Protein backbone atom coordinates (compact mmCIF):
# COMPACT_ATOMS: atom_id res chain seq x y z
CA UNK A 1 0.00 0.00 0.00
CA UNK A 2 1.15 3.64 -0.30
CA UNK A 3 1.43 3.56 3.51
CA UNK A 4 4.14 0.90 3.27
CA UNK A 5 1.95 -1.85 4.71
CA UNK A 6 1.98 -5.20 2.92
CA UNK A 7 -1.10 -5.59 0.71
CA UNK A 8 -0.86 -8.90 -1.18
CA UNK A 9 1.10 -12.08 -0.48
CA UNK A 10 1.47 -14.92 -2.98
CA UNK A 11 2.71 -18.26 -1.67
CA UNK A 12 3.50 -21.54 -3.41
CA UNK A 13 3.73 -25.01 -1.86
CA UNK A 14 4.48 -27.86 -4.28
CA UNK A 15 1.88 -27.56 -7.07
CA UNK A 16 -0.53 -25.37 -5.09
CA UNK A 17 -0.45 -21.60 -4.71
CA UNK A 18 -2.40 -19.07 -2.67
CA UNK A 19 -2.99 -15.33 -2.65
CA UNK A 20 -3.70 -13.45 0.59
CA UNK A 21 -5.04 -9.87 0.70
CA UNK A 22 -4.32 -7.95 3.90
CA UNK A 23 -6.00 -4.81 5.18
CA UNK A 24 -4.06 -1.54 5.13
CA UNK A 25 -3.33 -1.48 8.85
CA UNK A 26 -0.10 -1.10 10.77
CA UNK A 27 -0.52 -2.87 14.10
CA UNK A 28 -2.72 -5.81 13.08
CA UNK A 29 -2.62 -8.35 10.26
CA UNK A 30 -6.25 -8.49 9.18
CA UNK A 31 -6.93 -10.88 6.30
CA UNK A 32 -9.48 -9.52 3.82
CA UNK A 33 -9.37 -12.38 1.29
CA UNK A 34 -7.78 -15.74 0.58
CA UNK A 35 -7.68 -17.34 -2.89
CA UNK A 36 -6.35 -20.86 -3.45
CA UNK A 37 -5.52 -22.72 -6.64
CA UNK A 38 -7.61 -25.73 -5.57
CA UNK A 39 -10.78 -23.69 -6.09
CA UNK A 40 -11.41 -22.56 -2.51
CA UNK A 41 -11.60 -18.82 -1.83
CA UNK A 42 -13.06 -16.54 0.83
CA UNK A 43 -13.48 -12.76 1.06
CA UNK A 44 -14.21 -11.01 4.36
CA UNK A 45 -15.87 -7.75 5.33
CA UNK A 46 -13.71 -5.26 7.21
CA UNK A 47 -15.10 -6.50 10.54
CA UNK A 48 -14.01 -10.07 9.73
CA UNK A 49 -17.40 -11.49 8.76
CA UNK A 50 -17.57 -13.74 5.71
CA UNK A 51 -18.52 -11.92 2.49
CA UNK A 52 -17.97 -14.39 -0.35
CA UNK A 53 -17.15 -18.08 -0.07
CA UNK A 54 -16.28 -20.27 -3.06
CA UNK A 55 -15.44 -23.94 -3.55
CA UNK A 56 -15.03 -26.27 -6.52
CA UNK A 57 -18.83 -26.72 -6.52
CA UNK A 58 -19.88 -23.07 -6.53
CA UNK A 59 -20.14 -20.11 -4.18
CA UNK A 60 -22.27 -17.85 -2.07
CA UNK A 61 -22.47 -14.11 -1.36
CA UNK A 62 -23.48 -12.95 2.14
CA UNK A 63 -24.56 -9.54 3.36
CA UNK A 64 -23.10 -7.95 6.49
CA UNK A 65 -25.89 -9.45 8.61
CA UNK A 66 -24.87 -12.95 7.52
CA UNK A 67 -27.84 -13.47 5.18
CA UNK A 68 -27.20 -15.25 1.90
CA UNK A 69 -27.86 -12.81 -0.94
CA UNK A 70 -26.72 -14.96 -3.84
CA UNK A 71 -25.72 -18.55 -4.50
CA UNK A 72 -24.40 -20.19 -7.67
CA UNK A 73 -23.02 -23.44 -9.07
CA UNK A 74 -20.13 -23.69 -11.49
CA UNK A 75 -21.22 -25.06 -14.89
CA UNK A 76 -18.74 -27.98 -14.80
CA UNK A 77 -20.99 -29.92 -12.41
CA UNK A 78 -23.82 -30.58 -14.85
CA UNK A 79 -24.78 -29.70 -18.44
CA UNK A 80 -27.49 -27.36 -17.17
CA UNK A 81 -26.51 -25.63 -13.92
CA UNK A 82 -29.63 -24.64 -12.05
CA UNK A 83 -28.04 -21.56 -10.45
CA UNK A 84 -25.63 -19.81 -12.87
CA UNK A 85 -23.23 -17.08 -11.82
CA UNK A 86 -23.96 -13.43 -12.47
CA UNK A 87 -20.65 -11.50 -12.55
CA UNK A 88 -19.67 -10.04 -9.18
CA UNK A 89 -17.44 -7.06 -8.42
CA UNK A 90 -16.50 -5.99 -4.89
CA UNK A 91 -13.99 -3.52 -3.46
CA UNK A 92 -12.14 -4.84 -0.42
CA UNK A 93 -10.79 -1.33 0.13
CA UNK A 94 -9.84 1.68 -1.99
CA UNK A 95 -6.88 -0.17 -3.53
CA UNK A 96 -7.97 -3.81 -3.95
CA UNK A 97 -10.90 -5.06 -6.01
CA UNK A 98 -12.20 -8.53 -6.88
CA UNK A 99 -14.04 -9.56 -10.05
CA UNK A 100 -15.70 -12.98 -10.24
CA UNK A 101 -16.61 -13.65 -13.86
CA UNK A 102 -16.27 -17.46 -14.09
CA UNK A 103 -14.61 -20.35 -12.30
CA UNK A 104 -11.40 -19.74 -14.26
CA UNK A 105 -11.72 -15.93 -14.23
CA UNK A 106 -11.46 -14.67 -10.65
CA UNK A 107 -9.47 -11.47 -10.92
CA UNK A 108 -7.79 -9.64 -8.03
CA UNK A 109 -6.63 -6.13 -8.94
CA UNK A 110 -4.43 -3.75 -6.97
CA UNK A 111 -4.25 -0.06 -7.89
CA UNK A 112 -2.10 2.54 -6.16
CA UNK A 113 -0.06 5.60 -7.17
CA UNK A 114 -0.97 5.23 -10.83
CA UNK A 115 0.15 1.61 -11.10
CA UNK A 116 -1.94 -1.54 -11.33
CA UNK A 117 -1.29 -5.23 -10.78
CA UNK A 118 -3.73 -8.01 -11.70
CA UNK A 119 -3.84 -11.63 -10.58
CA UNK A 120 -6.10 -14.31 -12.03
CA UNK A 121 -6.84 -16.77 -9.20
CA UNK A 122 -9.48 -18.68 -11.12
CA UNK A 123 -9.09 -22.39 -11.77
CA UNK A 124 -10.89 -25.01 -13.82
CA UNK A 125 -11.43 -27.87 -11.39
CA UNK A 126 -13.52 -30.67 -12.82
CA UNK A 127 -15.78 -32.54 -10.41
CA UNK A 128 -17.40 -35.83 -11.28
CA UNK A 129 -21.06 -35.96 -10.22
CA UNK A 130 -20.70 -39.69 -9.61
CA UNK A 131 -17.89 -39.24 -7.09
CA UNK A 132 -18.26 -38.02 -3.56
CA UNK A 133 -15.91 -35.38 -2.22
CA UNK A 134 -14.11 -36.30 1.00
CA UNK A 135 -15.52 -34.51 4.01
CA UNK A 136 -13.15 -32.64 6.33
CA UNK A 137 -12.42 -34.31 9.62
CA UNK A 138 -14.77 -32.89 12.26
CA UNK A 139 -13.21 -30.81 15.01
CA UNK A 140 -14.63 -29.96 18.40
CA UNK A 141 -15.02 -26.46 19.79
CA UNK A 142 -12.25 -27.01 22.34
CA UNK A 143 -9.82 -28.12 19.61
CA UNK A 144 -10.55 -25.04 17.50
CA UNK A 145 -10.04 -22.75 20.49
CA UNK A 146 -6.75 -24.45 21.37
CA UNK A 147 -5.51 -24.03 17.81
CA UNK A 148 -6.49 -20.36 17.81
CA UNK A 149 -4.78 -19.67 21.15
CA UNK A 150 -1.66 -21.53 19.99
CA UNK A 151 -1.37 -19.29 16.93
CA UNK A 152 -2.01 -16.19 19.06
CA UNK A 153 0.72 -17.17 21.55
CA UNK A 154 3.19 -17.75 18.73
CA UNK A 155 2.24 -14.35 17.29
CA UNK A 156 2.96 -12.71 20.66
CA UNK A 157 6.32 -14.49 20.95
CA UNK A 158 7.24 -13.26 17.47
CA UNK A 159 6.26 -9.70 18.43
CA UNK A 160 8.36 -9.95 21.59
CA UNK A 161 11.38 -10.99 19.51
CA UNK A 162 10.73 -8.01 17.26
CA UNK A 163 10.67 -5.67 20.27
CA UNK A 164 14.00 -7.07 21.49
CA UNK A 165 15.72 -7.00 18.10
CA UNK A 166 14.27 -3.64 17.04
CA UNK A 167 13.74 -1.42 20.11
CA UNK A 168 12.39 1.40 17.92
CA UNK A 169 8.58 1.22 17.91
CA UNK A 170 8.42 2.42 14.32
CA UNK A 171 10.53 -0.53 13.18
CA UNK A 172 8.86 -3.51 14.86
CA UNK A 173 5.35 -2.17 14.29
CA UNK A 174 5.97 -2.55 10.55
CA UNK A 175 7.19 -6.14 10.81
CA UNK A 176 4.93 -8.85 9.43
CA UNK A 177 4.50 -12.15 11.29
CA UNK A 178 6.15 -15.23 9.75
CA UNK A 179 4.39 -16.74 6.75
CA UNK A 180 3.69 -20.02 8.55
CA UNK A 181 1.70 -18.18 11.25
CA UNK A 182 -0.36 -16.35 8.65
CA UNK A 183 -1.06 -19.65 6.87
CA UNK A 184 -2.10 -21.32 10.13
CA UNK A 185 -4.44 -18.44 10.95
CA UNK A 186 -6.10 -18.75 7.55
CA UNK A 187 -6.52 -22.52 7.93
CA UNK A 188 -8.16 -22.09 11.34
CA UNK A 189 -10.64 -19.60 9.86
CA UNK A 190 -11.41 -22.12 7.10
CA UNK A 191 -12.03 -24.83 9.70
CA UNK A 192 -14.44 -22.51 11.52
CA UNK A 193 -16.42 -22.06 8.31
CA UNK A 194 -16.55 -25.82 7.68
CA UNK A 195 -17.45 -26.81 11.27
CA UNK A 196 -20.86 -26.60 12.89
CA UNK A 197 -20.13 -24.19 15.74
CA UNK A 198 -21.97 -21.19 17.13
CA UNK A 199 -21.59 -17.76 15.53
CA UNK A 200 -20.36 -16.43 18.88
CA UNK A 201 -17.52 -18.97 19.04
CA UNK A 202 -16.67 -18.38 15.39
CA UNK A 203 -16.41 -14.63 16.05
CA UNK A 204 -14.26 -15.24 19.13
CA UNK A 205 -11.81 -17.42 17.19
CA UNK A 206 -11.58 -14.79 14.44
CA UNK A 207 -10.81 -12.14 17.05
CA UNK A 208 -8.09 -14.31 18.61
CA UNK A 209 -6.14 -15.07 15.42
CA UNK A 210 -6.62 -11.54 13.98
CA UNK A 211 -5.79 -9.67 17.20
TrEMBL record:
It comes from Helopsaltes ochotensis (Middendorff's grasshopper-warbler). The gene is Erich6. InterPro entries: FAM194_C. This is ERIP6 protein. The lineage of its organism: Eukaryota, Metazoa, Chordata, Craniata, Vertebrata. Residues 1-174 form the FAM194 C-terminal domain. It holds the Pfam family FAM194.
Amino acid sequence: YPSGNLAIIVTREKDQHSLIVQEDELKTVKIRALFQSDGRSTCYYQNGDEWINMSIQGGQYLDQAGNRVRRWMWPNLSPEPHVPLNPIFISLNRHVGVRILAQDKILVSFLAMGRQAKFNMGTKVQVSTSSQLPLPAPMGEDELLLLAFRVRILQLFDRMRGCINFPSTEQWNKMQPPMYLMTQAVKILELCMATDISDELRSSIKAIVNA
